[in-house]
Specification:
By secondary structure, the protein is mainly alpha-helical. The chain has a domain at 40-89. The protein is built from three helices and three strands, in the order αβααββ. Strands 1-3-2 form a three-stranded antiparallel beta sheet. The longest helix is centred in the middle third of the chain and has 15 residues, at 45-59.
């Protein structure tokens, strides 16, 4: 029966480094989940604000301009008290 040396076994193991991510701020639930239909036109205000800087950089606009757009498209709770503020079309 052939034998395999220990160094050969060690070389054959895949080298996988686990992904480590430590968020600096809480991550809004809708940033990592989908709506039941997948067609929800709104995202939470927290999710929109978390994306402002990366989107502004990718689009070549100032962060303040992106913040103004988020503010422009933010809707308050339904009837002023039901639900959370949301950002939509």
């Amino acid at each position: 029966m052939p034998t395999t040396s220990l160094p050969a076994l060690e070389r054959s193991k895949p080298s996988v480094t686990p992904l480590r991510f430590t968020p600096t701020l809480p991550i809004p639930a809708d940033a990592v989940t989908a709506s039941a239909s997948g067609l929800d036109p709104y995202i939470s205000l927290g999710s929109a604000l978390a994306q402002v800087a990366p989107v502004a950089t990718a689009r070549g606009v100032q962060v303040e301009q992106a913040n103004q757009l988020v503010a422009q498209f933010t809707e308050g709770p339904d009837l002023g008290l039901l639900g959370e503020p949301r950002v939509g079309h």
